[in-house]
Write a structure and sequence with these properties.
Blueprint (H helix, E strand, L loop, with lengths): L1 E12 L2 E13 L4 E5 L6 H8 L7 E6 L2 E2 L5 H11 E4 L11 H6 L11 H11 L15 H13 L5 E5 L7 H17 L2 E6 L10 E6 L2 E4 L1
Parallel strand pairs: 3-8, 3-9, 6-7, 7-8
Antiparallel strand pairs: 1-2, 1-4, 4-5, 9-10
Protein backbone atom coordinates (compact mmCIF):
# COMPACT_ATOMS: atom_id res chain seq x y z
CA UNK A 1 0.00 0.00 0.00
CA UNK A 2 2.37 2.71 1.20
CA UNK A 3 6.14 2.48 1.09
CA UNK A 4 8.73 4.84 2.52
CA UNK A 5 12.18 3.94 1.23
CA UNK A 6 15.23 5.51 2.89
CA UNK A 7 13.28 8.67 3.59
CA UNK A 8 14.81 11.63 5.40
CA UNK A 9 13.44 15.06 6.18
CA UNK A 10 15.87 17.81 7.10
CA UNK A 11 14.76 21.31 8.07
CA UNK A 12 17.14 24.24 7.62
CA UNK A 13 16.95 26.45 10.70
CA UNK A 14 19.20 29.34 9.78
CA UNK A 15 22.69 28.44 10.94
CA UNK A 16 21.89 24.80 11.68
CA UNK A 17 19.83 21.85 10.44
CA UNK A 18 17.32 19.60 12.16
CA UNK A 19 16.92 16.03 10.96
CA UNK A 20 13.28 15.27 11.82
CA UNK A 21 13.21 11.90 10.01
CA UNK A 22 16.43 10.02 9.42
CA UNK A 23 16.70 7.38 6.66
CA UNK A 24 13.41 5.62 7.45
CA UNK A 25 12.20 2.59 5.50
CA UNK A 26 8.75 1.21 6.29
CA UNK A 27 6.09 -0.61 4.25
CA UNK A 28 2.47 -0.41 5.40
CA UNK A 29 0.26 -3.32 4.34
CA UNK A 30 -3.51 -3.28 3.95
CA UNK A 31 -4.25 -5.13 7.24
CA UNK A 32 -1.65 -3.36 9.40
CA UNK A 33 -2.32 -1.59 12.66
CA UNK A 34 1.05 0.05 13.22
CA UNK A 35 2.02 1.91 16.38
CA UNK A 36 4.94 4.31 16.26
CA UNK A 37 5.91 5.19 19.81
CA UNK A 38 8.32 7.84 20.97
CA UNK A 39 8.63 10.93 23.09
CA UNK A 40 7.46 14.35 21.92
CA UNK A 41 9.71 15.93 19.32
CA UNK A 42 11.22 12.70 18.03
CA UNK A 43 9.79 13.03 14.49
CA UNK A 44 6.52 11.09 14.71
CA UNK A 45 4.27 13.83 13.31
CA UNK A 46 6.72 14.54 10.49
CA UNK A 47 6.66 10.83 9.64
CA UNK A 48 2.86 10.91 9.28
CA UNK A 49 3.06 14.07 7.17
CA UNK A 50 5.50 12.32 4.85
CA UNK A 51 3.17 9.33 4.55
CA UNK A 52 0.26 11.63 3.74
CA UNK A 53 2.13 13.54 1.07
CA UNK A 54 1.84 16.72 3.12
CA UNK A 55 5.61 17.09 3.53
CA UNK A 56 8.13 16.47 0.77
CA UNK A 57 11.11 14.33 1.79
CA UNK A 58 14.61 15.74 1.53
CA UNK A 59 15.72 12.35 0.22
CA UNK A 60 14.19 8.93 -0.42
CA UNK A 61 10.82 7.99 -1.93
CA UNK A 62 7.21 7.80 -0.77
CA UNK A 63 4.96 5.49 -2.80
CA UNK A 64 1.24 4.83 -2.49
CA UNK A 65 0.00 1.81 -4.45
CA UNK A 66 3.41 1.76 -6.20
CA UNK A 67 3.08 5.36 -7.38
CA UNK A 68 5.66 7.91 -6.25
CA UNK A 69 3.39 10.56 -4.77
CA UNK A 70 5.79 13.37 -5.57
CA UNK A 71 5.54 12.66 -9.30
CA UNK A 72 1.82 13.54 -9.14
CA UNK A 73 0.37 16.94 -9.95
CA UNK A 74 -0.95 19.01 -7.05
CA UNK A 75 -4.52 18.15 -8.08
CA UNK A 76 -3.80 14.42 -8.36
CA UNK A 77 -2.06 14.41 -4.99
CA UNK A 78 -4.96 16.23 -3.34
CA UNK A 79 -7.39 13.73 -4.85
CA UNK A 80 -5.28 10.82 -3.62
CA UNK A 81 -5.23 12.20 -0.08
CA UNK A 82 -8.95 12.92 -0.12
CA UNK A 83 -10.00 9.51 -1.45
CA UNK A 84 -7.40 7.14 -0.01
CA UNK A 85 -6.14 8.65 3.27
CA UNK A 86 -8.00 9.65 6.40
CA UNK A 87 -6.09 11.87 8.82
CA UNK A 88 -6.96 12.06 12.53
CA UNK A 89 -5.14 15.04 13.98
CA UNK A 90 -3.92 15.35 17.57
CA UNK A 91 -6.60 17.99 18.11
CA UNK A 92 -9.99 17.39 16.46
CA UNK A 93 -9.85 20.52 14.24
CA UNK A 94 -13.58 20.51 13.63
CA UNK A 95 -15.10 23.49 11.80
CA UNK A 96 -16.90 25.45 14.56
CA UNK A 97 -19.60 26.85 12.25
CA UNK A 98 -20.60 23.39 10.99
CA UNK A 99 -22.64 20.91 12.98
CA UNK A 100 -21.49 17.34 13.61
CA UNK A 101 -23.06 15.88 10.47
CA UNK A 102 -21.72 18.69 8.30
CA UNK A 103 -18.21 18.19 9.71
CA UNK A 104 -18.33 14.46 8.97
CA UNK A 105 -19.53 15.08 5.41
CA UNK A 106 -16.80 17.63 4.70
CA UNK A 107 -14.40 15.28 2.82
CA UNK A 108 -17.20 14.37 0.39
CA UNK A 109 -17.54 18.00 -0.70
CA UNK A 110 -14.06 18.25 -2.22
CA UNK A 111 -14.56 15.56 -4.86
CA UNK A 112 -17.76 14.15 -6.36
CA UNK A 113 -18.89 11.22 -4.21
CA UNK A 114 -20.31 8.02 -5.70
CA UNK A 115 -22.37 7.36 -2.59
CA UNK A 116 -25.13 8.96 -0.54
CA UNK A 117 -23.14 11.32 1.69
CA UNK A 118 -26.01 11.88 4.12
CA UNK A 119 -26.59 8.16 4.60
CA UNK A 120 -22.87 7.44 5.03
CA UNK A 121 -22.44 10.25 7.57
CA UNK A 122 -25.39 8.90 9.55
CA UNK A 123 -23.92 5.39 9.49
CA UNK A 124 -20.49 6.61 10.60
CA UNK A 125 -21.98 8.58 13.48
CA UNK A 126 -23.69 5.36 14.57
CA UNK A 127 -20.34 3.55 14.37
CA UNK A 128 -18.59 6.07 16.64
CA UNK A 129 -21.54 6.42 19.00
CA UNK A 130 -22.40 10.00 18.10
CA UNK A 131 -25.75 9.71 16.31
CA UNK A 132 -27.55 11.55 19.10
CA UNK A 133 -25.26 14.55 18.58
CA UNK A 134 -25.75 14.76 14.80
CA UNK A 135 -27.05 18.35 14.92
CA UNK A 136 -24.79 19.59 17.74
CA UNK A 137 -21.91 21.99 17.17
CA UNK A 138 -18.28 21.36 18.22
CA UNK A 139 -18.46 23.76 21.19
CA UNK A 140 -21.30 21.65 22.59
CA UNK A 141 -19.17 18.50 22.68
CA UNK A 142 -16.61 17.12 25.12
CA UNK A 143 -13.05 16.44 23.97
CA UNK A 144 -13.77 12.73 23.59
CA UNK A 145 -16.91 13.40 21.58
CA UNK A 146 -15.04 15.74 19.26
CA UNK A 147 -12.43 13.03 18.73
CA UNK A 148 -15.16 10.55 17.77
CA UNK A 149 -16.50 13.01 15.22
CA UNK A 150 -13.00 13.49 13.78
CA UNK A 151 -12.69 9.71 13.37
CA UNK A 152 -16.01 9.59 11.52
CA UNK A 153 -14.84 12.44 9.29
CA UNK A 154 -11.60 10.59 8.52
CA UNK A 155 -13.62 7.55 7.43
CA UNK A 156 -16.06 9.45 5.22
CA UNK A 157 -14.46 8.60 1.87
CA UNK A 158 -13.76 4.96 2.82
CA UNK A 159 -9.97 5.44 2.88
CA UNK A 160 -7.46 2.63 2.52
CA UNK A 161 -5.23 4.18 5.19
CA UNK A 162 -5.89 6.01 8.45
CA UNK A 163 -3.08 8.17 9.87
CA UNK A 164 -3.65 9.07 13.52
CA UNK A 165 -1.51 11.64 15.33
CA UNK A 166 -1.74 11.19 19.12
CA UNK A 167 -5.50 10.52 18.88
CA UNK A 168 -5.87 9.83 22.61
CA UNK A 169 -3.32 12.29 23.95
CA UNK A 170 -5.79 14.61 25.68
CA UNK A 171 -8.33 12.02 26.82
CA UNK A 172 -9.00 10.26 30.11
CA UNK A 173 -8.17 6.55 30.38
CA UNK A 174 -11.72 5.28 29.81
CA UNK A 175 -12.34 7.47 26.75
CA UNK A 176 -8.89 6.57 25.44
CA UNK A 177 -9.81 2.88 25.49
CA UNK A 178 -13.12 3.56 23.75
CA UNK A 179 -11.36 5.45 20.95
CA UNK A 180 -8.79 2.68 20.52
CA UNK A 181 -11.54 0.05 20.30
CA UNK A 182 -13.18 2.08 17.52
CA UNK A 183 -9.87 2.33 15.63
CA UNK A 184 -9.28 -1.39 16.05
CA UNK A 185 -12.69 -2.12 14.53
CA UNK A 186 -11.91 0.27 11.66
CA UNK A 187 -8.67 -1.65 11.06
CA UNK A 188 -10.49 -4.99 11.17
CA UNK A 189 -13.24 -3.99 8.77
CA UNK A 190 -11.88 -1.30 6.51
CA UNK A 191 -8.51 0.43 6.70
CA UNK A 192 -4.88 0.05 7.60
CA UNK A 193 -3.97 2.27 10.57
CA UNK A 194 -0.72 4.01 11.41
CA UNK A 195 -0.92 5.63 14.83
CA UNK A 196 1.79 7.65 16.56
CA UNK A 197 1.80 8.14 20.31
CA UNK A 198 4.00 8.51 23.36
CA UNK A 199 1.41 6.58 25.43
CA UNK A 200 2.52 3.02 26.37
CA UNK A 201 -1.04 2.01 27.39
CA UNK A 202 -2.18 1.50 23.80
CA UNK A 203 0.61 -0.80 22.64
CA UNK A 204 -1.57 -3.94 22.83
CA UNK A 205 -3.87 -2.69 20.06
CA UNK A 206 -1.14 -2.76 17.41
CA UNK A 207 -0.15 -5.62 15.12
CA UNK A 208 3.29 -4.09 14.52
CA UNK A 209 5.22 -1.73 16.76
CA UNK A 210 8.05 0.70 16.12
CA UNK A 211 10.07 3.08 18.26
CA UNK A 212 11.09 6.45 16.95
CA UNK A 213 14.05 8.23 18.49
CA UNK A 214 15.78 11.31 17.08
CA UNK A 215 14.20 10.71 13.70
CA UNK A 216 15.23 7.05 13.40
CA UNK A 217 12.72 4.18 13.33
CA UNK A 218 13.33 0.78 14.93
CA UNK A 219 11.02 -2.22 14.98
CA UNK A 220 10.26 -3.53 18.49
Amino acid sequence: MIQLQEVSKIYNMGDYQVTAVNNVTIHVLKDDFILVAGRSGCGKTTLLSLMAGLTKPTSGSVKFDDIDVWTLSDQAMSTMRNQKIGFIFQFPSLIPTLNVTENVKLPATFNPADYDADARAKNLLDVVGMSEKARAYPNQLSGGQQKRVSIARALMNNPKLILADEPTGDLDEETEKEIMVILKEVNKNQSAVVLVSHNPNIVTFATRRFLMDNGSLTKV
